[in-house]
Amino acid sequence: MTSGQASTLLTASGLTKTFPGTRALDGVDFELHAGEVHALLGENGAGKSTLIKCLTGAYRRDAGDIRLDGASIDPHNTLDAQSLGIGTVYQEVNLLPNLTVAENLLLGRQPRRFGFIARKAMNGEGREMLSRYGLDIDVARNLDTYSVAIQQIVAIARAVSLSGKVLILDEPTASLDRDEVRMLFDVIRGLRREGLGIVFISHFLDQVFEISDRLTVLRNGRLVGVRDVAGLDRLQLVNMMLGRELAEETRDHGRTGIDYAAEPRIRFSGTGRSGAIAPFDLDVHRGEVVGVAGLLGSGRTETAELMFAAAPKDSGSVTKNGKVLRLASPRDAIAAGFGFSPEDRKTSGIIADMSVRENIVLALQARIGWSRRIPRRRQREMADDYIRRLDIRTPDAEKPIGQLSGGNQQKVLLARWLATNPEFLILDEPTRGIDVGAHAEIIRMIEELCANGMSLLVISSELDELVAYSHRVIVVRDRAHVAALVGQDITTDRIVSAIARPTNLEAAQ
Amino acid sequence: MFAKTLLGASILASMTFFSSAVVAQTIGFSQIGSESGWRAAETTLTRQEAEKRGIDLKFADAQQKQENQIRAIRSFIAQGVDAILLAPVVATGWDAVLKEAQESDIPVVLLDRQVDSSDDLYLTAVGSDLHHEGVVAGEWLVGEVGDKECNVVELQGTTGSSPAIKRKAGFEEGIAGHDNIKIVRSQTGDFTRAKGKEVMESFLKAENGGKNICALYAHNDDMAVGAIQAIKEAGLKPGSDILVVSIDAVPDIFQAMAAGEANATVELTPNMAGPAFDALAAFMDGGTVPPKFIQTESKLYTQKDDPMKVYEEKKGLGY
Amino acid sequence: MNGTMRFLRRVAPQIATLAVVLLLIGFVFPGFFDLSFANGRLYGSPIDILNRGAPVALLAIGMTLVIATGGIDLSVGAVMAICGAIAASAITAGYGLPATLLMALGAGLACGLWNGVLVAVVGIQPIVATLILMVAGRGIAQLVTEGTILTFTNDGLAFLGSGNLLGLPTPVVIWLSMGALVTLLVRRTALGMLIEAVGVNRRASMLAGVNARLLLVTVYMVSGLCAAMAGIIVAADIRGADANNAGLFLELDAILAVVIGGNSLLGGGFSLVASLIGAIIIQSVNTGILVAGFPPEFNLVIKAVIVLVILVVQSPAIHGAGVLFSFARRSP
Q1: Physical contact, A and C (3 or more Cβ pairs within 8 A)
Q2: Positive/negative CA dihedral, B53, B58, B63, B69
């Protein structure tokens, strides 16, 4: 679009960075024009964040040259880079949530009067800064009273005002919903018009296609290629990232073979908790994948937590093969053959400091009991087996899971539950924030598991994904189950409209 | 200033003379707490001495807190007691409340510890002389060993505490001029039995299994009791192979003396109240103004003083 | 890499530190390594270190487990005082030795149960929850002894503090056995791994089916039991329960032992053996200062400097620079 006549703003040539054991960047070239949005793509571990950290001075590069406006620069740290003109906004907003919006915007350079902070002037200045982004909010309120999207924009406003030439956005949309992403993109487009060079990192290919002008693909620390987005084929891009052919993920698989006449394996009747999710009925059959769709905060995670007894229910009952289950804790649920991979991998899933092996055997060991330790050799065998079967990328089973990429962590968590051989597995956002390759493999796993007779409940924001593997899709809105789609009705359009407005099913109730 | 105090004192004396003739005296006692056996014995003896004299004693336990003591003194003043005994937990911060007592013409006697306030704010202070105790212990050792060579090991109190500093200096003064007596090792035992034992063990190791040691001087009896166990466990006889002299005269050391395992102890008497009541009586009845410091006797006990009998006497005091 | 190698790599820094400290003491006090055998036991300064280090070593066993769960137990010093007081008063009241020990150890377990319930069930932060007993415990001990040093004469009880067993002082045998027992218990069963999991991420562990609550209570009870044993040993050693001074500030030495043992205060991977070596390092420093004959005013300063040097030398930053020994952060 704009790349033809735009002037070069930032160039890096021959960037190399080595860590003990790995070469994270290997002679990578990168070029950013003024007035463009430039996407940086690659699987986890491709070298994206290392490149960013070298550009912003968070890491010292081993070799290579960085030029800004033609002049060679050598930022020593992020502050240094900021003063040179390179600002960065991370996925986890690194502002101070307990200060006001205005304070966050102007921290360190608040307007002063008689040595005191002039609050009124500061608020005025803050409002003005945000108005540039079409944001009209009360800047005197604490930052944490606003949504992540607004915090994100505040962070951008602060970064732009401090640096003003290059803005690096690292996974800015990971925790935003659809409307919020649109709001953010409007802001990015505004900044592009003003001539900033913007580096955009995201796992969401749709978003990359929507907002970027050009893109750079990295793989294993090397530059794969630079392309104009206009006219770029999606499959071709995935191919560049993975270095191999990947079939489109929309294979239509057999949605038959489920005996709905038989007694369901698990039946939830009237299960609910006030304030979390309205009572719902749900049957899960043998070999069935039940998809759950809904926006963040709609009650989908609460549904999963209630099913797994991770949160107490205040109504309803659960039966398995017709027998009533008493589930008071996750331990009870696991004993009944349930498994649950939670949405927030970092806080609720992985035991970061512990090895891949220990993370895999944990749930099985907890179920067997503390006194009967799984022999170490058996643990190793199990771990190695799953590492091979799920293609977990780790040098060995003893590596701390916290050092793996998100997708590999997710596979380890999947292995943890597969090791317990569950009958009913709940997966909350199993593909969030993971790279394309791992994504496809996890979807393949889901299909394989249900083909082997396991029952699954999968919550996902990726509607294409739900459509691909679900036998049934439950739509959740405003803390209630509002629709159930089966068979030919499972399409992204139908799901979206069910999320957006009342359905016939609901009207009939 | 002095004349004014005298005047006030004599008016007070004449007033209390009448009252004491009619009803029993009431005296308030603000005690620090019961942090040690010695402190408990002081409380017991104060009660006994008061009972002996027909004094109505109002007792307040401050549990180691100055604010509790100040509150207790104020309530004594409000109750209109005839006099106040105060064992101050710290040295500073007493000016205001002592002035209040003075303005109400209630004489205050300090027990055991001193305060930093001006000395016309209280009648007198009763206490032991820590330095003198050390001198008594040192002089006993001089008399015991005569001209023989004698290597002494010393178990100090808590480093930097005033008993440790003064008892050390006093002992050194006591043995001064007798070059045959040398302090070869000196370490802190923190006034506790356990540390006394541990440090004594290291002394024994460092001094050729204890063969080079002729006497132990401990700043308190508890450390001596611990050290005696260490000496026994090293295969030596405390009391004969190694002489043991210490300070405080708590009951357990008399048991050790009776068993021949300790030789001498210098008493830090817990009877501070006796001299205090005597001074108060003389002041109130006859207007005799006591000196600002009344030193209690630092009595020396040895194995000849029928230690079992003393043990039985002291045992009931709450040590 | 096999298990033995991994273990040796884990404890190498602690063993090296201990060796350096001992050599230093040997340099200042030449007769330090002399050992002799008399009256059915070994004598010598190294044996004294093992003997005097018994209370901190015992406390460090429980403290290591508590710290591995991401907690801390500040009450152990006070629990020592309580249990020592109970042992002394029970034996003087005429109970037999077994009943006495049962009561004292039971009191330790009860204290641990109290801490564990506050932490795991009520949900109070460990540092605050155990602070309660740390403050109140010494008062409870004083109530038991009625403010005096409660002296006893029972030789059976005194044996636990100053007797000999298998050619060693009894306390040494007690802490070595307890250390071996607990190490076997956590490493031969899955307890060690489950404790580490809870320490690193309690919520994730619970969701994986680990009974975190029960585990936490158990760990604090083990800590209470260890404190009770330490309290009994200290009281037995001086044939008296000193409620004011028994175990005073030992909780800090126990925490220090765990830290010198290379265990993270944030919880997770732990090594009991390394903590025990840490306890012996601390006692070596203490004993070294005593036999060296420095004036007592320098004791604390010397100890602080040595501890500082040890911690700096063991810090990961130094290892990153590859200055000293290779350092594995976690044990198997």
Answers
A1: yes
A2: negative
A347 vs A329: CA distance, rounded Å: 18
Cβ-nearest to C209 among A363, A376, A400: A363
Answer whether B257's CB lies under 8 Å from B302's CB.
yes
Q: For residue C125, what are the CA distances in angstroms to A322, C61, C72, C210?
A: 43, 21, 9, 20
Provide the number of structural domains found in chain C. 1
Chain B residues lying within 8 Å of C231, measured CB to CB: none
- What would the mean pLDDT of A137-160 be, rounded to a whole number? 84
Q: Is C15 part of any domain?
A: no
DSSP C231-272: HHHHHHHHTEEETTTTTTTHHHHHHHHHHHTT--TT-S---H
Interface contact flag, B34 C142, Cβ < 8 Å: yes
Tell if the CB–CB gap between B35 and C244 is shorter than 8 Å.
yes
Pick the CATH number of B2-127+270-288 from 2.30.42.10, 3.40.50.2300, 3.30.750.24, 3.40.50.2000: 3.40.50.2300
A308, C207: Cβ pair inside 8 Å?
A: yes
CB-CB: which of C244, C295, C297 is closest to B36? C244
Q: Is there a contact between C200 and A366 if contact means CB atoms under 8 Å apart?
A: no
Inform me whether the pLDDT recorded for B258 exceeds 80. Answer: yes
Chain B contact partners (≥3 CB pairs within 8 A) = C
Tokens of A327: 């589930």
The per-residue pLDDT for range C8-46, each reduced to its tens digit, is 888 888 999 899 999 988 888 888 888 888 777 888 889
Spatial separation of the C-alpha atoms in residues A224 and A51, rounded to whole Å: 14
pLDDT tens per residue, range A429-485: 888 767 777 778 888 888 889 888 899 999 987 777 888 889 999 999 878 898 899
User: How high is the ipTM of this complex?
Assistant: 0.85
Residue A1's pLDDT band (boundaries 50, 70, 90)? very low
Please identify which residue in the block is written with the tokens 């007691």: B81
Q: Could you tell me which chains touch chain C, where touching means 3 or more CB pairs under 8 A? A: A, B
C200 contact residues in A (CB cutoff 8 A):
351-354
Q: Which residue has the tokens 């000496």?
A: B231
Q: Model-level pTM?
A: 0.76
Residue numbers in C near A395 (CB within 8 A): none
What is the CATH code for B130-268+304-311? Answer: 3.40.50.2300
Question: Is the minimum CB–CB distance between C269 and chain A shorter than 8 Å?
Answer: yes
Which chain C positions have a beta carbon within 8 Å of A353's beta carbon? Answer: 196, 200, 268-269, 330
Q: Does this chain's domain B2-127+270-288 share its CATH topology with B130-268+304-311? A: yes
Q: Do residues C223 and C62 make contact, with C-beta atoms less than 8 angstroms apart?
A: yes
Q: Which residue of C has its CA nearest to A331?
A: C209
Domains of chain A: 8-98+142-242 (3.40.50.300), 266-508 (3.40.50.300)
| Region at A18 (left for phi over 0; alpha for psi -120 to 50; beta for the rest) | beta
Contacts of B36 in chain C (CB under 8 A): 147, 244
**For chain C, what percentages of helix, strand and coil (3-state, to nearest 5) are there?**
75, 5, 20
Chain B residues closer than 8 Å to C146 by CB = 40, 318
Q: Is A273 helix (H, G, I), strand (E, B) or coil?
A: strand
Mutate to test the interface with C, among B42, B158, B198 (most CBs of C within 10 A): B198
Is C30 domain-assigned?
Answer: no
Angle of the C126-145 helix axis to the C76-92 helix axis, nearest 10: 20
Report d(CA B46, CA B84) in Å as an integer: 12
Measured at the CA of B139, the angle between CA B134 and CA B142, to 5 degrees, comes to: 130
Conformation bin of residue A472: beta by default, left when phi > 0, alpha when psi is -120 to 50: beta
